[in-house]
Amino acid sequence: MKSKNLLIILLLFVFLGYAQQGNYKFDNFGNRSILLAGNVTGSVSDLGLTYYNPSFLAEAENVGFSLNAKAYQLVSYKLDNVLNENTKLSNTRFNGASTMAGGVFNLFGTRFAYSYLTKSNYNTDLNYNSYYLNDNILSLFPDAESHNAKIGLTSKVKDDWTGLAWAHKVTEDFSLGISAFGSIYSYSSASNNSHTVLSANSDVAFYQNTISFRQKSYGLFLKIGANYHFPKFDIGVNVNLPYLELYEDGRFSYSAVVAGVNPEYNKFVDNNFKDLKAKRKEPLGISVGAGIPIKKSKLHLNLDYVSGLGQYDRLVIPSIDTGESSLTPVAFDEKRQAVINLGFGIEFFLTEQFQGYGGFSTDFNAFEDNANILNLSAEENKDVTLSGDFYHMSLGVDWKLKWASVIAGFTYTSSSGSFANPYSFDTEVFNIDSNVDAKLKYTRWQFVVGIDIPILSKKINSLK
After folding, report:
1. 3-state secondary structure the chain
2. Model pTM?
3. Is the pLDDT of residue 300 over 50?
């Protein structure tokens, strides 16, 4: 049972890393935008405009520097009905979240903005060492006295964006803008499983299976935004163009060892591939939003559509030698469905110095098939899709000082549903089945603090 619980926990840890790539609103950027749950396509008023709608840059009030709200998050997983045995597993961790920084400046008589953000950042390195004997092992090795299982799983996703935005006020009520972000993306995972059995006559049987991959991609994300001021509300549109890949690289390796059982079953295979053809795809997205003033407060509405992606090979991996009479094909592909997300935010006027913020948004997962290390590790290269639908809520305040604006608040994210993903292997010697059939509940609390500081001349003038 310990080994099965471990595999469930491993799945829970990698779940978040994969979800970040299939959920388009998992993280938000910009101090006030975070507290409005990202529902600012038609009303953005902070540095988040470079990400949500660059046309609002033409109307930015202050030229200066902004530091994205620093977020720390408390993430909790709870799993009920593990293996239908009415048992429960849970895990809680505390760490930092994605960040953004940048500023606004005037040049050549027009307005520009620069920004840096960590779009995705997830890193896990899990290892487990256990001694156990069960009927499955004893049926294969009746004289077994000891069985040692070592299981390791690493997963790293990192996507850093550096961007420049420009905007132009076409008329008094109509503005256009464009953002260009350079993306440095890396995605890698490895799975390492080994089993050692010691029998009463001191015979030793050993099995090891190691799989790893790495994908690198450098490219561009372009965003085209527009907004128009009507007498009683503002409306904005932002188009996220498909990812333009400029550089790609992929690697894959697979090795397996079986020894000490019977010469008939002994084997050693080792496959290493470099400079593989790789592809990263991000689809077209269109967002529409509105900002509706209500006295001194404001209602923010948002609708996001992201198109789907037909099935494609994320890595083109040659057929590999697994010790069988013929080479084994390896599929590592991905497919996404179109998704529509809805959200709203409320900006409360409290006093001239204090504004309150709140928001809610849906975040539906687009994956139909997704490429991950569990697919490669599963028996017969089965499709193991990791995905989840999330719901985001936020609440916070903006404290306006003479020399700066201080933002503080929190966000809450939740997801629940069935969690059934096989992680097993079946060889002629070892047959260890670890199937997960459970109910998963995920929660995340983010605590955020940020600051906007005008440039020195603005600061001096405001203090006069």
Report:
1. CHHHHHHHHHHHHHHHHHHHHHCCCCCCCCHHHHHCCCCCCCCCCCCCHHHHCHHHHHHCCCCEEEEEEEEEEEEEEEEECHHHCCCEEEEEEEEECCCEEEEEEEECCEEEEEEEEEEEEEEEEEEEEEECCCHHHHHHCCCEEEEEEEEEEEEEEEEEEEEEEEEEECCCCEEEEEEEEEEEEEEEEEEEEEEEEEECCCCEEEEEEEEEEEEEEEEEEEEEEEEEECCCCEEEEEEECCCEEEEEEEEEEEEEEEECCCCCCCEEEEEEEEEECECCCCCCEEEEEEEEEECCEEEEEEEEEECCEEEEECECCCCECCCCCCCECCCCEEEECCEEEEEEEEEEECCCCEEEEEEEEEECCCEEECCCHHHHHCHHHCCCCCCCCEEEEEEEEEEECCCCEEEEEEEEEEEEEEECCECCEECCCCEECCECCEEEEEEEEEEEEEEEEECHHHHHHHHC
2. 0.83
3. yes
